[in-house]
Design brief:
Number of helices: 3
Radius of gyration: 16 Å
Structural class: alpha+beta
Helix content: 25-40%
Distance between the termini: 67 Å
Number of domains: 1
Largest sheet: 3 strands, antiparallel
Length: about 90
């Protein structure tokens, strides 16, 4: 039996699994692979890896695997929003 195809990221395919869904909703995950974090941020892999390397986007290592915590994605978006939409002081 084939698994349903959910999304395509570049050349890589992501397949849905029953473990990803609970009562028709996607479960909240705590850690994302780098490509999944890139997808969450609507960025490419090169930019996402540059953000991780520069420390702008927090990540952790588990063995050889690099993971981005969900909170780190939220923090990055909040920080960008605050920088770009904060009221500017007039001189």
């Amino acid at each position: 039996m084939r698994r349903p195809r959910v999304a395509v990221y570049g050349r890589m395919r992501r397949w849905s699994s029953k473990a990803d869904h609970v009562i028709g909703r996607v479960m909240n995950r705590r850690l994302y692979q780098t490509r999944e974090a890139a997808h969450q941020l609507s960025l490419g892999m090169t930019v996402t890896k540059a953000l991780i390397s520069s420390g702008e986007l927090r990540s952790i290592k588990i063995g050889h695997a690099r993971r981005v915590p969900a909170e780190a994605i939220d923090e990055y978006v909040r920080r960008l929003d605050a920088e770009q939409n904060s009221p500017r002081e007039s001189a």
